[in-house]
# Entry
Amino acid sequence: MYEINYSGRAVSCTENETVLECLLRNGIEHPHSCRNGSCQTCMVQAVAGSVPQQASAPLKPSLREQGYFLPCICQPQDNLEIRPAAIMERLQVAVTGVESLGQDLVQVKLQRPEGFSYRPGQFINLFRDEKTSRCYSLASHPHHDDELVLHVRRLPDGRVSGWIHDELTHGDKIEVSGPLGDSFYVADDQQQPLMLIGTGTGLAPLYGIIRDALHHGHTGPIHLYHGARDAAGLYLGEELQQLQSEYKQFRYVPCVSRQEPGERYAAGRALDVALQHHPQLKGWRVFLCGNPDMVKLARKRAFMAGASMRDIYADAFTISA
Ligand SMILES: Cc1cc2nc3c(=O)[nH]c(=O)nc-3n(C[C@H](O)[C@H](O)[C@H](O)COP(=O)(O)OP(=O)(O)OC[C@H]3O[C@@H](n4cnc5c(N)ncnc54)[C@H](O)[C@@H]3O)c2cc1C
# Structure
């Protein structure tokens, strides 16, 4: 049994319990979401004690060096003194618009807080109330958009997505924190081919990444495969067609898996179609976003097709429930 001291409050962590489970069991309302190390909402900083290596493995080296780790995947092997991560400070922002993008899908625009810098493709935590937050990816681009833009799909009985769809409105004040995530474009090799595969609102970060690559003058091919069951699940088609006609290096392939494809769509799941078109991904940089099962499988198949693990960037839209 190890002692966890959380900003001055000491609690005991039982065997096989994670630090996050211990905090919540003891009534400490520490923000969290996915509980499996992918969203980073619960990140804390260790002030004293040694943290098991795997608890900080998903974080950037710069964060690891400062003692940050993820309590949701940390079973302690030492007494720990920890505090909430300073970069998770909550910022109040005004909602500047909530507009429909299609069936069960809205675009949320938020005032960008002063000094808030981010890379397109990163995500933020959006708080419904003191205890309840969810991650949403940034589809906006800091040089081209004044606001932060999110794409939110309504999930059946979803506590936060339902609230966003039904109640959130222009002028509301909400809290966000972040940005988080390291799935974004880096302009180190502008000729490298880019493969982007997304399902549903997995398009949000990919849209940001594509515009960032083009903004930086990326000259290599950029291929986007966006998939949904049917055409109603696809969106931003016109904007993406427009980009395709402006930039000859960009190709957009919308895919439908459970509908007759017709002339506008490719038939099948986005991952399958992408790999049929590009069975060899050696030397490619790959971005994967959306459904967690798709992301897991795509990571494996992209690697088997020759992509290097260090060139595969992924955001699985894990659901906390
Ligand atoms: C890194 C990251 C980025 C993301 N980016 C986006 C994005 O850009 N856009 C987007 O739309 N989403 C995104 N998500 C997903 C988002 O964070 C939320 O998980 C999603 O909006 C659902 O939240 P919710 O509160 O509406 O649903 P929840 O209330 O969390 O419920 C989710 C689902 O589980 C069901 N459920 C709830 N409780 C139970 C239970 N006890 N047993 C069984 N089922 C239950 C609900 O009916 C619902 O269908 C992202 C997630 C991650 C991790």
Helices lie at 19-25, 61-65, 159-166, 203-215, 237-246, 270-277, 292-304. The chain has three domains: 2-87, 89-180, 194-316.
